[in-house]
């Protein structure tokens, strides 16, 4: 009955799980309308003319579209492709529809070298990031490379200062909080003092972000692409960055700011999990005014009892993970460094709790 | 049989058997979920909460509602189980399921959910999940999963079991047995304070110990007034699922375990998920309520000591 349609015996594919041969980086580009995102995108496309780059505009909004257009630049030509967002298995699917659509397209039409995703000004880049920050076990073709925020040197401060109705986060501030790279654009439109103010404000929100200043979004592409902000490849670089993260006095009220601390010693992995979950999921920690702390971004390098390698900690909103880095502690002092970016953060409360519940073997420097 | 997708390379021996019978109507006096009447079958209530990870803690009245609907879903599955034998088509099973739902004043949840055309999912052999009931008669040696979800009084209840059709090969029996054990071991660990992401570790450990793999693309989910909602419950190890179990949480665990690789692909119908290597896959599912001391299996079988149907045929 089925025989007439039987296809010839197929060669079985190897059933090895694990990351595929070459993963494609996804860079999320966010920022207010007019800051220069599109200019940046166009600049990247023209500069990288021998790479095959996909550009997706306005992320994947409300689930109503069945198809979404994507622009592909190759050899200086720009052409359109279509992502099929089959609504079918939206329900219990682990991978986001948008992610699957990109993977399907690449399967049919070949891989890209880079994927750039521009989000609308009001979107939460953290939510978009989590679409692409998939578990390594899923063996996806893509990986989240980093979040780039473009801010207008002239109007940026005003946007950051905008008063939001009770409890709502200022989107501009959140975009900076989540950024791995912030591009302060249109520096030709402001004087030195104004530029310093913008830079200081960005720094006070996000103590870790790389800041680059540009005119007309012209930037050295090695600063924007291949950031590897979410993988453990660059353990040493991260540790260095954390050491340099200098928390500053907040420039804005009811603001997002960066809190860091370091504690020498070895940690219990279970206890750190519980600490982070209490902080990110249960929102159990409050500042001295009784307001619950909300963490938007979390980064750190820690030492677990029994593990010779340095472990990287990464978090975006409620998603977090630990990743062993190739770096060994060796004879160095086991300094655990954690950086939190968010609202109502209280360094003392966090550090006290951390020291009393998470540190198993304290070390004195 | 028809050839609906010329050029599509099937991964295994199974083929769709079209045409499908027209969509079955549900009497107007039965309460309908929001997506039942949406032209694309979209659920606005689910979309509204998309991306959130807050898990609802059900109040006593909601819990009672869930107990009732899960019991009804179990009755419908037991009826489907009775029909499984060589020669019966999956559409015939679907028809019986549809009538059983209506008789119990339930709306069959899959019907029109994102335009799904039938009242239950029937997944045979290499189909991982979301198989669409059609004209194909069951064959001796097949394994068949029937996935039932019903909607009653504003709540959804969801469960599935894999059944043997006639005489099944030893390898397939082992697959089905192991999959069931994966589910039951995961359920054994459910109690307040356990992280949702831990379930994947338990399931994958047992599957791998038996030489099988765990499907990664589909996961368990929160269920109550919404068909699919937070939490997300992946079945594979080392996942980043958000959330810790608390009394009053209700969710499903539904591992899909494969003889060969875990990679899946979807037929051009947009629903049927099959293994890429064409080897077989089995699944079991329960809806669970987290209680103070552990959990209550809301969709448990009330006779035969709660044993799954396939155990009668081992």
TrEMBL record, chain A:
GO biological process, one term: intracellular zinc ion homeostasis
Domain CobW C-terminal positions: 256-358
Keyword annotations of the record: Chaperone, GTP-binding, Hydrolase, Nucleotide-binding, Zinc
Database matches in InterPro entries: CobW-likC_sf, CobW-like_C, CobW/HypB/UreG_nucleotide-bd, P-loop_NTPase, Zinc-reg_GTPase_activator
Keyword check for Chaperone: yes
CDD domains referenced in this protein's UniProt entry, alphabetically: CobW-like
Chemical reaction(s) catalysed: GTP + H2O = GDP + phosphate + H(+)
One Pfam family cited in the UniProt record for this chain: CobW_C
GO terms for MF: GTP binding; GTPase activity; zinc chaperone activity
Entry GO terms, CC: cytoplasm
Family according to the record: Belongs to the SIMIBI class G3E GTPase family. ZNG1 subfamily.
Name of protein: COBW domain containing
UniProt lineage: Eukaryota, Metazoa, Chordata, Craniata, Vertebrata
Gene this chain is encoded by: CBWD
Automatic annotation (TrEMBL), chain B:
Protein's name in the database: Methionine aminopeptidase
Organism in which the protein naturally occurs: Nothobranchius furzeri (Turquoise killifish)
Domain Peptidase M24: 64-292
HAMAP family, alphabetized: MetAP_1 (MF_01974)
GO BP terms in the entry: proteolysis
InterPro entries associated with the record: Creatinase/aminopeptidase-like, Pept_M24, Pept_M24_MAP, Pept_M24A_MAP1
Residues binding a divalent metal cation 1: 147, 158, 285
EC number of the protein: 3.4.11.18
Cofactor(s) essential for the protein: Zn(2+); Co(2+); Mn(2+); Fe(2+)
One of the Pfam families matching this protein, by short name: Peptidase_M24
Molecular function (Gene Ontology), one example: metalloaminopeptidase activity
GO cellular component: cytosol
Ligand binding (a divalent metal cation 2): 158, 221, 254, 285
Record keyword GTP-binding present: no
Subcellular location per the Swiss-Prot or TrEMBL entry: Cytoplasm
Record's keyword terms, sorted: Aminopeptidase, Cytoplasm, Hydrolase, Metal-binding, Protease, Zinc, Zinc-finger
Enzyme class: hydrolase
Cofactor: how and how many bound: Binds 2 divalent metal cations per subunit. Has a high-affinity and a low affinity metal-binding site. The true nature of the physiological cofactor is under debate. The enzyme is active with cobalt, zinc, manganese or divalent iron ions. Most likely, methionine aminopeptidases function as mononuclear Fe(2+)-metalloproteases under physiological conditions, and the catalytically relevant metal-binding site has been assigned to the histidine-containing high-affinity site.
Catalytic reaction(s) noted: Release of N-terminal amino acids, preferentially methionine, from peptides and arylamides
Functional description taken from the UniProt entry: Cotranslationally removes the N-terminal methionine from nascent proteins. The N-terminal methionine is often cleaved when the second residue in the primary sequence is small and uncharged (Met-Ala-, Cys, Gly, Pro, Ser, Thr, or Val).
Main location: cytoplasm
Protein family according to the UniProt entry: Belongs to the peptidase M24A family. Methionine aminopeptidase type 1 subfamily.
Residues holding substrate: 130, 228
